[in-house]
């Protein structure tokens, strides 16, 4: 039985993502929507793995650039290797704070908080729009006077413009010092037929979930005022593929998302 504070009456993005990745920390309502979506678009689980692979590559790249602090918002249910494991493999002293609003993720925080003796880990349970709370609690582990790698992967497409998606990014990046980096992956309709994108959006909406798949111009707005690093805005699978291993099934699939990494000057 689920704990009382977990709403199992409707799917949750973190649990859907867990189901796509073959995890067990989801509920029948998540599996039901997942099966309907993958029946319509069988490539979705591969897309989820491609997104995760990008997260690993971007984290590895940041650590190689000297970033030693990471704030990961929209963490999702732990699946090894987690972000801190990737970062601490390169930099054992890396400090990482995770944030998610799903109590299921909180219940697995112990798995997220098992890192190296040299590093430090923390967890914040909050909605991404609670930026003041996130920043205040993250500051217990991270030093905001030093550069931070801010990861917002597979998160912002669940926040519409009306829900304040751009304001969230602006408030978070305003708290970062120069030398910090912003990492985003985001679903887009640009690589799929309009009818297919509309069908997926409607299936999410019918289950009480927002899905705003932004085009390239709207995605690029998240990086305003920051300096995009090479190779710029691309599909996930095109961003520094040499830093990771190919995903099984990737050769016949498209990630369906834009990604980008930018530096605050």
Automatic annotation (TrEMBL):
Entry's Gene Ontology molecular function annotations: methyltransferase activity
InterPro entries named in the record: SAM-dependent_MTases_sf, SAM_dep_MeTrfase_SAV2177_type
Name by which UniProt lists this protein: SAM-dependent methyltransferase
Gene source species: Streptomyces glycanivorans
Keyword entries, A-Z: Methyltransferase, Transferase
Record-linked SUPFAM superfamilies: S-adenosyl-L-methionine-dependent methyltransferases
Biological-process GO terms, alphabetical: methylation
Superkingdom as given in the UniProt entry: Bacteria
